């Protein structure tokens, strides 16, 4: 009886995972872990490649991360995990976007993996229940942001003119 019960639990869990909507992208970057970590966590570097300026960047669990301009926040979240040069996870919610107002909060995870002298940055934006407005916006934004980050770290320049 127990094996059937556990098999059903596993199958139910697999079904739930299959229905999760998420965005994942891997980028190979020729740089050091320290430089990549700084690019993910230091406001002066983030502002060079990200689509909007960073207002606050926490450095430990529970602290705030937010993007926008003076007096207006566009993206807000909370640091959920901060493992230096390994992993950064934060919650994510569009704060100033009327079309995304009813969308639930999601989660962004940056993981740094070293392989054959290269670093792999794995970005996972998860927690979507559907392909809502937030999902549509981030699937257009992340490829540009990650390409801009890679270009900055490898050439010292960005994709912006």
TrEMBL record:
Keywords: Signal. Residues 1-18 form the signal peptide. Residues 31-154 form the Activator of Hsp90 ATPase homologue 1/2-like C-terminal domain. SUPFAM superfamilies: Bet v1-like. Coiled coil: none annotated. InterPro entries: ASHA1/2-like_C (IPR013538), START-like_dom_sf (IPR023393). Belongs to the AHA1 family. This is Activator of Hsp90 ATPase homologue 1/2-like C-terminal domain-containing protein. It comes from Lentisphaera araneosa HTCC2155. The lineage of its organism: Bacteria, Pseudomonadati, Lentisphaerota, Lentisphaeria, Lentisphaerales.
């Amino acid at each position: 009886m127990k094996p059937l019960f556990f098999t059903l639990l596993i199958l139910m869990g697999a079904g739930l995972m299959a229905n999760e909507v998420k965005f994942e992208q891997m980028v190979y970057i020729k740089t050091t872990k320290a430089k990549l970590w700084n690019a993910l966590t230091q406001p002066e570097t983030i502002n060079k490649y990200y689509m909007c300026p960073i207002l606050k960047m926490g450095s430990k669990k529970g602290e705030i991360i937010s993007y926008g301009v003076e007096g207006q926040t566009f993206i807000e979240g909370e640091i959920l995990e901060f493992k230096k040069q390994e992993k950064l996870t934060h919650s994510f919610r569009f704060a100033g976007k009327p079309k995304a107002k009813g969308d639930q909060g999601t989660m962004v995870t940056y993981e740094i993996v070293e392989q054959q002298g290269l670093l792999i940055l794995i970005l996972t934006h998860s927690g979507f229940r559907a392909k809502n407005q937030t999902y549509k916006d981030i699937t257009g934004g992340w490829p540009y942001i990650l390409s801009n980050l890679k270009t900055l770290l490898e050439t010292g320049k960005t994709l912006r003119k």
